[in-house]
Amino acid sequence: MLRRALKWTAFRSLSIDHLRPLLSSHSSPSNFSSSTSLRTPTDNFTDRAVEDVAYPSITPSPPSATIAIDRSGLCNPPEHSHEATADSEIVRHLKSIIKFRGGPISVAEYMEEVLTNPKAGFYINRDVFGAEGDFITSPEVSQMFGEMIGVWAMCLWEQMGQPNKINFVELGPGRGTLMADLLRGTSKFKKFIESLSVHLVECSPTLQKLQHSNLKCVDENGIGENATISTLAGTPVSWHPTLEEVPSGVPTIIIAHEFYDALPIHQFQRTSRGWCEKMIDVADDSLFRFVLSPNPTPANIFLTRRFNWAAEDDLAKLGQIEVCPRAMELTESIAKRISSDGGGALIIDYGLNGIVSDSLQAIRKHKFVHILDSPGSADLSAYVDFASIRHSAEEASENVSVHGPITQSQFLGALGINFRVEALLQNCTDDQAESMRAGYWQLVGEGEAPFWEGPDDQVQIGMGTRYLVMAVVNKKQGAPVPFES
């Protein structure tokens, strides 16, 4: 049955003979999942009416002590309601910030507090991944995803001249599933494995412990110390709160899978008086609500920058826009490091190769909920603006080149996922083969799986075209696979 699924799209095979043992290995599958709830945004974005107003020039001004509230012309999401309950710790914290400021906070600050507040942030004290969590990511779907990322990393390492030491960095590694599958899959390539020093950028103590366990780490001095070793491949592992704290000076390979989508965004709306930032305030009934700032905010600097990268025709059609300063700054840091140390970065996420207008979403227990409903109990994420990433990298350094984005289906197919799935099928039980087929479709398929025979509410949804892949590499190394053509 899987072979019928393989006929849906033709993939280029990776013409690197020495990697064929990795793809064709008859090792048993290590993890399967037939769950269908993916961390992908809804398709039914609301297109708001655009006022017939010429695009104004934006001159940022210093923020005032208080922010006046203007609700005229605000594009509100659908009404939501929930029964009054005692405020959670994060809700009390958000309300105290608003009260102290004497006015509303930005959507970006709301996102940052809700997701990464040290005491009550969504990511900090829980495992949010997998069927028992709130959403499922590609590494949780099938071991093949991490294995294909390993193929890409080995190819880049070869283009770099097979250096003896590599900083291998993953941003936001979740449970550590991707890294575990990558190390397990490449463990037979001793020279590559021996060059790696793994660095996990993770701010959640709970997830650090999960990563430590899933990578089968042993250490003498505790999590995050240099003595920590992953027994999957004998590789040293360390943890860092930010990319800046990862040691520099040696070639670096960076993986950012579903990391950019959780970075805080600012939302702006076009009004009769120009572009106004959407803010979050507390209403008279003590519930959160959206309002508009009547004056330019500090984030207008990044709005102006994003507009400078856009075509006038695209701007004329806009009623709303999202900008992500943190993504711009992170990309600049990545580009500068790759420029000075060599190496490359792989960015995989859902998004657009252009302006993003209104994509912010909240997911709780695999279901979409209102963004302002029970803050801290749902994941918040937004479409990634891949065009913005490209411009940020190219402006940061002339020594890097940006490739893509291409679809996840094209990326995995070119790296040889078809060879790998055929090899795994030779050592599968019938139940495992069925899960393999479902996992394969989720990774490379588009829309609903045509072969699905189960309940309608569990239909397999493919991520093959929803997710995009972009690479940023040092120009000296040439174009990475599979971006050569």
Please give the domain count: 1
Q: In percent, how helical is the residue content?
A: 25-40%
- Give the overall pLDDT as a whole number: 81
Q: Strand share of the residues?
A: 15-25%
Task: Explain how this protein is built.
The protein has one domain (1-163, 251-485): Rossmann fold. The protein is built from 16 helices and 20 strands. It has helices spanning 2-6, 20-24, 89-101, 107-116, 138-141, 143-159, 177-186, 190-195, 205-214, 300-308, 312-316, 325-341, 386-396, 408-415, 417-425, 430-444; strands at residues 105-106, 166-171, 196-201, 217-218, 229-230, 235-240, 252-257, 266-271, 274-282, 288-292, 320-323, 343-352, 361-364, 367-369, 379-381, 384-385, 400-407, 446-448, 461-463, 467-474. The strands form four sheets. Strands 2, 3, 4, 5, 6, 7, 12, 16, 17 and 20 form a ten-stranded mixed β-sheet that branches. Strands 1, 8, 9, 10 and 11 form a five-stranded antiparallel β-sheet that branches. It has a three-stranded antiparallel β-sheet with strand order 14-13-15. β8 (266-271) and β9 form a beta hairpin. α6 packs across α7. The longest helix has 17 residues, at 143-159. The radius of gyration is 23 Å and the shape is globular.
What is the fold's blueprint, element by element?
Elements: H1 2-6, H2 20-24, H3 89-101, E1 105-106, H4 107-116, H5 138-141, H6 143-159, E2 166-171, H7 177-186, H8 190-195, E3 196-201, H9 205-214, E4 217-218, E5 229-230, E6 235-240, E7 252-257, E8 266-271, E9 274-282, E10 288-292, H10 300-308, H11 312-316, E11 320-323, H12 325-341, E12 343-352, E13 361-364, E14 367-369, E15 379-381, E16 384-385, H13 386-396, E17 400-407, H14 408-415, H15 417-425, H16 430-444, E18 446-448, E19 461-463, E20 467-474
Parallel strand pairs: 2-3, 2-7, 3-6, 7-12, 12-16
Antiparallel strand pairs: 1-9, 4-5, 5-6, 8-9, 8-11, 9-10, 12-20, 13-14, 13-15, 17-20, 18-19
Helix pairs in contact: 6-7, 12-13
InterPro entries: NDUFAF7, NDUFAF7_sf, SAM-dependent_MTases_sf
GO biological process, one term: methylation
Keywords: Methyltransferase, Mitochondrion, Transferase, Transit peptide
